[in-house]
Amino acid sequence: MSEIRFLNKNIQGENLTFTDRSALFWAREKALIISDLHVGKTAYFRKNGIAVPSNILNDDLKKLEKLIIFFKAEKLIIVGDFLHAGNNSDIDIFCVWRSNFPQLEIILVKGNHDRINPEILEKACIKEMVDELFIPPFTFNHDPLVSESKFYISGHIHPGVLMESPIQRMKFPCYAVSGNQLILPAFSSFTGLNYKTLGPNFIKIAFAKGHIFMV
How far separated are the first and last CA of the chain, in Å rounded? Predict the structure, then answer.
């Protein structure tokens, strides 16, 4: 895998590192932060007769492994939609990958797809699943929320930017940052992009592999 590119920003007095691999690193907590991994989505589509490449999840997990090693992360915060469609064969792939990092603490903030029973959590060695997580100064919730008293880090909407010229249209995933919100891109490569939801108050940090830039 090529070199990870990143951009550092101070947000709420904390050093956050935005990467070109759909993940945020929080230095003080030694935490890698992602959203919308959607484990099981490809297996669900194949089960229902839709031809989807079988290597998508493996490629996503290789990307995650590279990030954990690069940043020496001790904690992984998944801001919702760890799963896509309950327990299926992709869970076994994740659990084999998980065994490579027995000391990694994984905290899952529940997303709309995360209909997970305790057995699946235990199987995946996920420490806990919570509706909302507060680690000062940030509050983690899967759905983007606005509050005057809290700074939310969320996911769910798969933010992206569309850049157009007279001869070309280019689409990029992005992070979206406002005065009281940070919305993460989807970590899974098997997702679409939402260009329409973000308001003009957001700064967008777009990326492609090997490139990361402010829009």
Answer: 26
